[in-house]
Amino acid sequence: MKIAILVSGSGSNLQTLIDQLHLDSNSGVEIAVVISDRPKAYALVRAKKVDIPTYVIQLKHFPDRNAFDAKISGIIETHEVELILLAGYMKIFQPPFVRRYRYQLINIHPSLLPAFPGAHAVADTLAYHTKISGVTVHFVDEGVDTGPIITQVPVPVLDDDNESSLHQRIQIEEHKIYPQVVKWFAANLIHIDNRRVIIKQE
Ligand code: GRF
Question: At how many degrees (to 10) do helices 163-186 and 121-128 cross?
Answer without folding.
Answer: 130
